[in-house]
Amino acid sequence: MVVGANISTTLSAALQPRPFADAGVCSCIHENSLPELMVVGANSNNGMSLGIIQVVGANSNNGKSPRIMKRRFQTLPRGHMKKSMLRFGVLISLFAGLMTLSCKKDDRVELFELTYPPPPIEFDILPGLNTFDTHIYSFSPIPTRYLERLAASGHSADEVIAIEAKDAALSSLFGDENINFINRVSIYIFDPFEPANKVEFLYLEPIPYKEKNTIRLFPGITDISDWIKEEYIGIEIRLNFREISPALTEMTLRFDLRVMGN
Hints:
The protein is an alpha+beta fold. Helix content is 17%, strand content 47%. The chain has four helices and 14 strands. The model is unreliable at 1-15, 17-61 and 63-73 (pLDDT under 50).
């Protein structure tokens, strides 16, 4: 802190270029006193330096001596600033590219829909199951009836470019049981003759508390045509609980697939 009876002499002493190679007053605010001066100077080695001189008290005309406090801190060096700006520019470019890709129009059309069941996909959740394990329920073989439905649609196999999940719901069998204890659902499709050949195509995590009786699953964008075009598929349901299962609960899964073409 620098204390002086004369404001001009005090400021002159405070603004000596000890920390700066070249300094100048950037801004000044006046009321009944001189609250604050900001001094910016260049440092020839590593960029810009910033000093703040704060004047506390009234001017010398009313008999009080001002008190001047100096604070100084270093800004980012020039080289670091350039690198930061370059990184920022790269991030902006990547974001713009992702937005462009996400907004790209899907020119594909839905040729027809596959609905399951039939056959029914039903299972029981036993009471007392813990929250630590993943509880798995598998069903196979399930006939796809793909060729039958393709012929009924009037389209040819050459027109099909992808088969994706469209909609799905997991619920109690009669829609009257509270299934709020389920926290996560993940559903896989697999080859019944090669069970390790599987892929996730429906999921929801975490499940909102409001889903009391029916859980609407999120359809993935995975192309599952390699499985659906076969005569049979297998379905694997994986559940995780937020609470111990309270009672025997009869469950059912329904899902729709969309067959896409150009």
